[in-house]
């Protein structure tokens, strides 16, 4: 049994780095292409296809500022985690929850955080 995602290539992985957002594409033939997109231009990568504007306007879009208050969907004492889409079912089985307002995963209080070590976010990235 393989750990292949349940969908056909190409596969895209997105990772936030200090230089911007790293996008890794794996094609059907197994070849890989990586590129880094500056944070200001990365907002266009996260727009759903149904709402996406033409590619020329992506670089000029402004990134909305995050609210200073904590979101209502994530209880106090929760631990944020970074779960790739292909691994979301595994995280859900372990007890992770999705915060729709922040569009991110978290471990609720009372669940052993060590189960989620592979998806842990460094405190410096928060």
How would you explain this protein's 3D organization?
The protein has 2 helices and 6 strands. Mean pLDDT is 74; it is low at 47-61. It has helices at residues 39-42, 88-94, and strands spanning 11-17, 20-26, 32-37, 79-81, 97-99, 104-107. The termini are far apart. The strands form 2 sheets. Strands 1-2-3 form a 3-stranded antiparallel sheet. A 3-stranded antiparallel sheet has the order 4-6-5, with no helix packed on it. It has 126 residues and is mostly beta strands. The protein is globular and about 45 Å long.
Structural class: mainly beta
Radius of gyration: 16 Å
The major sheet is characterized as: 3 strands, antiparallel
Average pLDDT level: 74
Strand content: 15-25%
Portion in helices: under 10%
Q: pLDDT below 50 for ≥5 consecutive residues: which ranges?
A: 47-61
Lateral arrangement of strands in the main beta sheet: 1-2-3
Q: H/E element string?
A: EEEHEHEE
- Secondary structure: number of strands: 6
Number of helices: 2
Choose one word for the global shape. globular
N- and C-termini, Cα separation: 36 Å
Chain-wise SSE layout:
Elements: E1 11-17, E2 20-26, E3 32-37, H1 39-42, E4 79-81, H2 88-94, E5 97-99, E6 104-107
Antiparallel strand pairs: 1-2, 2-3, 4-6, 5-6
Tag the structure with descriptive keywords.
126 residues, mainly beta, 3-stranded antiparallel sheet, 2 helices, 6 strands, 9% helix, globular
Short description:
The chain is mainly beta and 126 residues long.
């Amino acid at each position: 049994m393989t750990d292949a995602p349940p969908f056909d290539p190409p596969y895209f992985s997105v990772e936030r780095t200090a230089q911007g957002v790293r996008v890794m594409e794996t094609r059907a033939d197994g070849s890989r292409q990586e590129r880094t997109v500056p944070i200001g231009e990365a907002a266009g990568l996260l727009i759903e296809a149904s709402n996406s504007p033409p590619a020329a306007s992506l670089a000029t879009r402004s990134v909305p500022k995050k609210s200073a208050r904590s979101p209502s969907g994530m209880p106090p004492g929760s631990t944020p985690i970074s779960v790739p889409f292909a691994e979301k079912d595994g995280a859900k089985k372990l007890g992770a929850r999705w915060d729709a307002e922040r569009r991110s995963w978290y471990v609720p209080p009372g669940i052993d955080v060590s189960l989620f070590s592979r998806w842990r976010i460094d405190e410096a990235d928060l």
